[in-house]
Write a structure and sequence with these properties.
heterodimer, A: mainly alpha, 15 helices, globular, B: alpha+beta, six-stranded mixed sheet, 19 strands, 34% strand
Amino acid sequence: MKLEEILPPARKREKMAPKPVELVIKPGGALRFNPRELWQYRELFYFFAWRDIKVRYKQTALGVVWAMFAPLVTVVIFTIFFNRVAHIKSPGIIPYAVFSYTGLLFWNFFAAAVSSTSGSLVANQGVITKIYFPRLIAPFSATIVNLADFVFAFVLYAALLLYYRVTPGLAGVVMLLPMLALTFFAATGMGLFFGALNVRYRDVRFVVPFLVSSLIYLTPVIYPVSLVPERYQWLLYLNPMTGVIQTMRAGTLHQGAIPWSMLLISVASTVCMLVLGLFYFLRQERSFADYI
Amino acid sequence: MTPIIEINGLSKAYVISHQREAAYGSLRDDIVNLLRRPFQPHITQGARRETVWALDDVSFDVQQGEILGIIGSNGSGKSTLLKILSRITDPTKGSAILRGRTTSLLEVGTGFHPELTGRENIFLNGAILGMGKKEVDQKFDTIVEFSGVSRYIDTPVKYYSSGMYVRLAFAVAAHLEPEILIIDEVLAVGDAEFQRSSLGKMNSVAREGRTVVFVSHNMQSVRDLCKTALQLDHGVIVNSGDATEVTDSYLGTTESRHRTPLNERRDREGSGRLTFSEIVVNDTNLDLRELSIDLSIHNHTSEVFDDVLVSVVIEDNTGRSITNIVGQNIGYAQKVGLTESRLRISIANMHLVPGTYYLNVFLSSDTMNSEIFDWVKHAAQIVIPEYDYHGTGRLPIMKGATFYSDFKFEDVSSLA
């Protein structure tokens, strides 16, 4: 018998027996928020998102074309009804189609992300009742498929700008990612709250679509902010999407300066929503499997 | 030696509200209550709430390399214990310490998506069970080989037969390498051949020094797999020790009574002059080949009934009636006195296959224009576990069947 079989080198032994893991299960007290654990589960996050994207476009003949088709039709309808019939004008020389699509692009991402995050726990019910994982993974990974749709809708946006010969402003390009992030956090903030509520009260399933489709009228997607008297405009900015859309219009379509102070209102309200949503979600997290 | 699993006073309470369709309520109910009684603890109206201790002060240790079987009838707290150890639900009191990487398998194929191919599902399921992509990559070929579905690995699993599906799912699970493995009756699936290979696989897992906690209804596999076992009943450990002894005593002592009061039931039909007030199901032995049912009948009138027709219909979980037990069929009429009457029905030679069955109870007058007094559907439930019907030491293959029969096979070729 070789010597190393009897006496394995110390270093090798160390490698074979990693630091003992000790897990203590006890009644949960305060909020359980463990960023390190979330990081350990990043692969699950990735696989959930990957699954959603795969499943989304399986068995569809046109696949991703749908992600562009729907917003295109919407903007055509908007142009016909709100611009031609109702005479809502875009400020300046920007064509109404480009004006409204700038809003619609972000709004669609927001609306889709709110509804997929709030439905994510119930959608993953089968896994939640059988396996432990940090539940936050479910709502966050659910938005990735919406992000994919956003990318395709963005391609259409680029095509529209090209078609109408609008050269996007540099500020718009710079602000694109921060505004996307703001949209993402606003949507997940709302989605986390409704998602956790949905576990206990299935009423939420009916409330969310209704809420999202009504909220578009409180967001300057089809109309410019200037339609609202100036001293009430700040109220509109409590809706984070107003900040996002106005910033993108100012930056990309050269419609005045970016409304920084107003944007701050939107950022503040997003932070509030996110903290509230996260707080409620983490409070409820431990009992999801008992109620779902 | 420090035990690898240490459980101290673990308890779990569930608050059950009666007369509610489901555990999740409607937001409206809770808001209305909150407005009505803003300063009182939140009690949903129209519902009696009751705390049930699904697990009550359970403590035990598991040593490294031990394979522990947990047995007990339905509602004994097995599943709750499993859920707590898997971190799906939190305990109400007590603690559990797991010293090692833990994987729990409460079902095979958790998270399998029908639209995804076998290959894709292996990766997805692997990730859900805590295997990294790298690890799955390494084991991919052995997983596919073990599953025996390599020809269809790029076909969406919705086109798989249920057998193939289970094989693939189990193949992924079998290649996990945790230090502690917590398993629910995932072995109660698949055909006999596959069950044998899974059992073999699990035995080899145990030989590698892993610790296994195995929850099962199936006494045979507990005996085959485990050295030690513990029995839970109503959330308490009632027996523990050598697996063969614990399962033997379990099989011997499962003459249990399930008492269900029926007064509270509103979903009943009939005039209500006579009603069933209680049903008690006595299982005389584990396989429920013999069964007796005690029925209490309450007389709400001031008259005495001489010939009342009592019948019980046993229905399977698809709603198909399996057998009718009607007093009239054997010329029995029940007398119902002024207050409460009690009746015992004994049934012999039941050969039902494992599954859940429901008892519908029916009470009427035995006259031409018969009056239905009371009719309660699903008054009680009986669960028939898997068992070794033929006494051969293995579980019979009864897929798709309705009842067992006694049979013998003979080679008669020499007679011709």
